[in-house]
Design a protein that fits this description.
- The chain contains 5 helices and 2 strands, in the order ααααβαβ.
- By secondary structure, the chain is mainly alpha-helical.
């Protein structure tokens, strides 16, 4: 007999970190900003952004970075400043800053290492990782060369 699980035992679906109305609002924002993304994929992106923020806030001295797709969710969330600030305070206990990297800055170990660190941090925090949404690190043009979490606790 084979049993298939949707997610590993002992992990939390990170979309549950969000108030359902906030999750819906962010999902709409992602699909509005990126019409090529389906609503179902946008919802997955929003959940992974919540997991990224939660894990990043708990490990502020790590150079964690979102994937390109997950960054769409983070940017949508940051634009909703009140919801974002409430989420950060409730889930992390402090505001998690969005810090663009400069053109000449390199992530320790490169982009692949940043994704590996980030995904490991999300799993260590107890959240399910949607591997399909983590193929590469973000290269946000609106953030110059990339985005990272705030490097130090505030």
């Amino acid at each position: 007999m084979t049993i298939a699980l949707e997610r590993p035992v002992g992990t939390t679906n990170p979309i549950t970190l969000l108030d359902p109305q906030v999750a819906d609002r962010l999902t709409r924002r992602v699909t509005s900003d990126h019409p090529e993304i389906s609503e179902a994929t946008a919802r997955r992106i929003v959940g992974q952004a919540a997991a990224f923020i939660a894990a990043s806030g708990r490990q502020p001295d790590q150079a964690l970075a979102p994937s390109e797709l997950v960054d769409y969710g983070w940017h949508a969330f940051v634009l909703h400043t009140v919801d974002y600030a409430v989420f950060c305070e409730r889930v992390v206990g402090r505001f998690v800053h969005h810090v663009p990297t400069d053109d000449d800055e390199q992530m320790p170990g490169g982009a692949a290492a940043a994704i590996e660190r980030t995904v490991s941090a999300i799993r260590a925090a107890g959240y399910a990782v949607d591997d399909e949404l983590w193929p590469n690190v973000a290269d946000c043009t609106q953030c110059h060369a990339g985005c990272t979490n705030s490097p130090k606790s505030a």
